[in-house]
């Protein structure tokens, strides 16, 4: 492209905001309504209006998007490639408007249309079904920070047609419904069919007797079709790309088979191919679900590495430059096959020798671990590799042979160590240990909070940390303040900017300038008003969407995250039952009115987690029906938790529940979002909560319970029955559950909870921490009665949240792992 055209593009972009402040922006919007949907503007539906607004915004950013990629090719900087099976990006419209800096103009244009309702337009956009929990939301924050920091980057994932599921609650039970978020065209994505890649599969799948079976020895391939989404950095200067792969069959329709009467055979290949990216997280309780997940990971890795190599070769002809120009970050073990696939590319296509290929692979790849649960460290049956990708299995075997030689030379005669460190697990059927593969095949392994990184080194993979101490490091997680404060909490963001300026938006450490304002009565009063307004907005939204009515004058206490035993929603509801039993025993006791919010999804096959959801809802129903507790305690389960729900509830929350069993939560990021929105944390010394308390001072937190060392050291002697027999409130709460007080119409349904807590050892130590938790909750309630003291602590929390920006985290990755520098788009 000529310099003259470059300048024209830049000039057009910089005038882009003006398009929304004059008739041009309105014309763009009406043009999309008319020509995309063939509808008159005054007859358009809200969905059609949303698509027109989104496409108008995409028109605005398209030139800078192209210019970003062109600049990277011209400047040839080191690029970061972030591989993740999840990107929980939420809605894109508001985020893109805020980061482009055109919100006043867009809002003005929409409000000038008598047929347009700004709020309804925003609500029309579905949450993208591309992730489920913290891992995916972290990836979304990271790619936004990469763009804001002007670091050349591409995110790679899968374009799931269906999210994990839509959660409905029926009679207290979680019911899973399809989440077809792509039922209508997504105005943000751009398909690039010319950049489609072919992915070899060593078998084919056929329908035999109504069952899907793999037929080895009949090689075929899948097509990986790239769908790109813009990742807008704050200020709109850099627009990076999130590239999602959709799976397709090379033969979309076999007309010959169809004409000959084989109607099923004509379409089965297409259906099977598209199944690969049909749904996020297939049910892995079955072998078929596990196999599909394996194919998803293989497909994502192969597509992404093919694209990465193509980008590298556009501007580099020397393979030895690969680690200098390419940084590939593996977000957990899901993309760990990248170790073997990159070796295959370097060995089979670049024709390099093993040692050179291995050095380049290790120098290019880095691995982030996200779990301390051994069962969450992926292992894949060797049989899956044999059926789908035998060449990668050959490479894994050779990596392991050479690595085991190194281990035996380093630790002669230590066979147990060699067995633990092997990439192959021999017991119970041969499996590939993907975490071991990721650690051996990369130059960096990082945890995501200081305690997590320490436990990773000393417990989970201690053998590897001893052998490769230089590879292990910590990168405490962070969240983007653009979405989680600037966009989600407009009132508080406005108050902060009015008080200290707006530089905090890209330098969250500036929030510390709020600390002197804790003594400013006027500031505290306005701070209190922002919280009250957020609570009222959430109460109105909840009533309009679910019919549930909550009182903004009560304490809003929230635990919103994936439902899992180690996250201990069960501990939370046990405490609610303790409070309820106190009221039943003595209705005259002082108890600050409190609304307990729960939200989160349980994996469809996780029966105990689903039963905990049922218990939460049943307890809430009984409390609502009892006059002694009505108006004093309320339990609300908010269904179908997603990013959009979090954006509403987090600003409204007074109390953040971070109560995982110490030593089990890698980091957490919801804890950070609550902190920067002025909630006070009650929590264990676990994950990033420890560092949050260090930043603000433990006196501004409500910490309780066993620490990670105490949890580990008490495993041999811990007896949950002791707590049941010696703590009257614990026994009374459990008796209410197990005597069917909360399940009179379904007697015995909570027996599995009794078995987990009393018969099977209470592995996550709910009863060990219940008394400490209840005592700390009482202190919290006492403080809330002193409104001024509460607000002072809330302001301190906001002021000390600066460390927990994803900008800081990404800057550390860039400097200490990737060696990547900003590349401004001039």
From TrEMBL:
Enumerate the Gene3D superfamilies for this protein: Glycogen Phosphorylase B
Cellular component (GO) terms are: cytoplasm
Q: Which residues are recorded with the post-translational modification N6-(pyridoxal phosphate)lysine?
A: 673
Please give the cofactor(s) recorded in the UniProt entry for this protein: pyridoxal 5'-phosphate
Which superkingdom does the taxonomy of this entry point to?
A: Bacteria
Which is a Pfam family this sequence falls into?
Phosphorylase
The answer to whether the entry has keyword Transmembrane is no
Instruction: Identify its protein family.
Output: Belongs to the glycogen phosphorylase family.
What function is annotated for this protein? Answer: Phosphorylase is an important allosteric enzyme in carbohydrate metabolism. Enzymes from different sources differ in their regulatory mechanisms and in their natural substrates. However, all known phosphorylases share catalytic and structural properties.
Protein name in UniProt: Alpha-1,4 glucan phosphorylase
Q: Give the organism, scientific name.
A: Stieleria neptunia
Name of the gene encoding the protein in the UniProt record? glgP_2
């Amino acid at each position: 492209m000529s310099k003259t055209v470059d300048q024209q593009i830049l000039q057009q972009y910089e005038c882009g905001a003006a398009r929304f402040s004059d008739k041009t922006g309105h014309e763009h919007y009406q043009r999309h309504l008319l020509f995309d949907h063939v509808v008159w503007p005054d007859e358009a539906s809200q969905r059609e209006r949303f698509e027109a607004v989104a496409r108008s915004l995409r028109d605005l950013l398209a030139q800078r998007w192209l210019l970003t990629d062109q600049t990277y090719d011209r400047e040839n900087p080191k690029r970061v490639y972030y591989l993740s099976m999840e990107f929980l990006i939420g809605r894109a419209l508001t985020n893109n408007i805020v980061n482009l800096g055109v919100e006043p103009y867009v809002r003005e244009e929409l409000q000038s249309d008598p047929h347009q309702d700004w709020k309804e337009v925003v609500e029309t956009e579905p949450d993208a079904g591309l992730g489920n929990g913290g891992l995916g939301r972290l990836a979304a924050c990271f790619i936004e920070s990469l763009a804001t920091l002007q670091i050349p980057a591409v995110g790679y994932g899968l374009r799931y047609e269906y999210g994990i599921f839509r959660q409905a609650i029926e009679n207290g039970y979680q019911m899973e419904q399809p989440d077809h978020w792509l039922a209508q065209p997504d105005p943000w994505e751009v398909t690039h069919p010319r950049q489609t890649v072919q992915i070899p599969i060593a078998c084919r799948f056929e329908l035999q007797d109504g069952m899907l079976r793999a037929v080895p020895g009949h090689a075929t391939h899948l097509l990986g079709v790239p769908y790109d989404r813009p990742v807008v950095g704050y200020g709109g200067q850099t627009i990076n790309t999130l590239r999602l792969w959709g799976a397709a069959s090379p033969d979309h329709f076999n007309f010959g088979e169809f004409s000959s009467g084989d109607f099923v055979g004509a379409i089965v290949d297409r259906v099977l191919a598209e199944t690969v990216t049909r749904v996020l997280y297939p049910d892995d309780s079955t072998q078929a679900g596990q196999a599909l997940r394996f194919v998803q990971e293989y497909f994502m890795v192969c597509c992404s590495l093919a694209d990465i190599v193509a980008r590298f070769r556009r501007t580099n002809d020397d393979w030895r430059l690969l680690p200098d120009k390419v940084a590939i970050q593996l977000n957990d073990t899901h993309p760990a096959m990248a170790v073997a696939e990159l070796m295959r590319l370097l060995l089979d296509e670049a024709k390099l020798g093993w040692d050179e290929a291995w050095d380049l692979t290790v120098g290019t790849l880095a691995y982030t671990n996200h779990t301390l649960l051994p069962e969450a460290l992926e292992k894949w049956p060797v049989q899956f590799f044999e059926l789908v990708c035998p060449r990668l299995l050959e490479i894994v075997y050779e990596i392991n042979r050479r690595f085991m030689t190194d281990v035996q030379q380093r630790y002669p005669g230590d066979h147990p160590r060699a067995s633990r460190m092997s990439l192959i697990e021999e017991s119970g059927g041969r499996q590939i240990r993907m975490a071991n593969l990721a650690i051996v095949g990369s130059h960096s392994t990082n945890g995501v909070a200081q305690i997590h990184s320490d436990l990773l080194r000393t417990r989970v993979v201690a053998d590897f940390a001893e052998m490769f101490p230089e590879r292990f490091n910590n990168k405490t997680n962070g969240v983007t303040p653009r979405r989680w404060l600037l966009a989600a909490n407009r009132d508080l963001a406005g108050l902060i900017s009015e008080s200290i300026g707006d530089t905090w938006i890209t330098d969250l450490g500036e929030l510390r300038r709020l600390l002197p304002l804790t003594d400013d009565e006027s500031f505290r009063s306005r701070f209190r008003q922002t919280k009250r307004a957020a609570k009222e907005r959430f109460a109105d939204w909840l009533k309009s969407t679910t019919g549930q009515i909550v009182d903004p004058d009560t304490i809003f206490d929230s635990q919103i995250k994936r439902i899992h035993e180690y996250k201990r929603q069960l501990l939370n509801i046990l405490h609610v039952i303790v409070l309820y039993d106190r009221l039943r025993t003595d209705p005259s006791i002082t108890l600050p009115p409190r609304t307990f919010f729960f939200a989160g999804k349980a994996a469809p096959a996780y029966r105990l987690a689903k039963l905990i959801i049922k218990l939460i809802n049943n307890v809430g129903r009984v409390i609502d029906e009892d006059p002694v507790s009505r108006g004093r305690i309320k339990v609300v389960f908010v269904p179908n938790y997603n990013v959009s729900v979090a954006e509403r509830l987090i600003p409204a929350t007074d109390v953040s529940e971070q109560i995982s069993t110490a030593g089990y939560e890698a980091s957490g990021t919801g804890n950070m979002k609550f902190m920067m929105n002025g909630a006070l944390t009650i929590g264990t010394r676990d994950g990033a909560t420890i560092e949050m308390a260090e930043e603000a001072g433990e006196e501004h937190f409500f910490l309780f319970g066993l620490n990670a060392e105490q949890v580990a050291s008490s495993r041999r002697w811990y007896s949950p029955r002791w707590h049941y027999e010696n703590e009257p409130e614990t026994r009374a709460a459990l008796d209410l559950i197990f005597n069917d007080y909360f399940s009179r119409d379904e007697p015995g349904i909570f027996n599995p909870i009794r078995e987990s807590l009393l018969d099977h050892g209470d592995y996550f130590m709910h009863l060990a921490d219940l008394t400490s938790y209840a005592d700390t909750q009482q202190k919290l309630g006492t403080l809330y009665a002193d409104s001024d003291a509460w607000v002072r602590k809330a302001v301190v929390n906001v002021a000390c949240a600066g460390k927990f920006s994803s900008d800081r985290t990404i800057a550390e990755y860039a400097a200490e792992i990737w060696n990547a520098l900003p590349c401004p788009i001039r």
